[in-house]
Amino acid sequence: FTALPVSVCFLWINMGTVFAIILVFVGCCSNVVSLELLVRQFPGCGNIVTFAQFLFIALEGFIFETNFGQKKPAIPIRNYVIMVTMFFTVSVINNYALNFNIAMPLHMIFRSGSLIANMILGIIILKKRYSASKYLSIALISAGIFICTIMSARQVNVANEGSEEQGLYAFMHWLIGICMLTFALLMSARMGIFQETLYKQYGKHSKEALFYNHCLPLPGFLLLSTDIYRHCVYFSQSTPVVIPEVGLTVPIMWIYLLVNVITQYVCIRGVFILTTECASLTVTLVVTLRKFISLIFSILYFQNPFTTWHWVGTAVVFLGTLLYTEVWSSVRAALRGPAVKEKKAE
């Protein structure tokens, strides 16, 4: 009888982890698909997408986290203002970079370089030191991103062979997008370090941080209101579709946006649950595998240009990420564990 509660508890923990992993894969992968559907129709729709995501998550947090504003924050608002400034900048720049001939596969690969930025800023700001395997993994990730970036640059040049001026303009336009992604990568890493110091001082309040990170930046979208309104008009003029059962006719772009917002929320919630259920190593591995599946789906379903060198670069990036998270060491230790127990039993 005493074994029953233990087994039930173990099953419950496993079910919680499995549920979180399902949320991450379904939510995040669907989010990438819906974003690509939006961007293919209107490449400049990054601002309206970001605004819709922020508004939805802020409303959900206002109702369920702050109890309609009655619950006081555990972390002082002034600290959230600093964090929010960085978070808002990163989110807007990442989405706006898609305006500059940045293909979704390159966008995903480039954002996988967050480990590089975290390590560089960790060394500079926190004076951290890493093992040789960590430096090797970062070198692999850097090399993989470099290969993919160079091959994408060549594709931009080939696609604009009409005249030398057109080719140069397209390349410079693309280069601005790469610079934006690089800046957002470093800013995101800096925000992570700032969050780390806040959590050490005040404790972890992930739900609260999620709400304030999405609520406080909302006034900032007034600066982008003209662009957001323009895309509202574009979305309303898109092809209408009839929703089954309801019989309501809605422009297709608004449906894509709704799916994107909901899947973004599911993705974020899945990652949050996973961080409470699993070690950070497991979270990193799940997120990395999710990015890889999203990348493969983007290439195959949307037929994005992807050469052999792109595959080489992608493989190197993911190899470096797995090396950084020390997955192989963990797998060996897990396999060795039962064998050690058997020997002790003998």
TrEMBL record:
Pfam families (UniProt xref): UAA
Transmembrane segments: 12-33, 48-68, 80-98, 104-126, 138-156, 168-189, 210-229, 249-268, 308-327
One GO CC annotation: Golgi membrane
Keywords: Membrane, Sugar transport, Transmembrane, Transmembrane helix, Transport
Molecular functions per Gene Ontology: UDP-N-acetylglucosamine transmembrane transporter activity; UDP-xylose transmembrane transporter activity
Family: Belongs to the nucleotide-sugar transporter family. SLC35B subfamily.
Bilayer topology term: Multi-pass membrane protein
Protein name: Solute carrier family 35 member B4
Subcellular localization: Endomembrane system
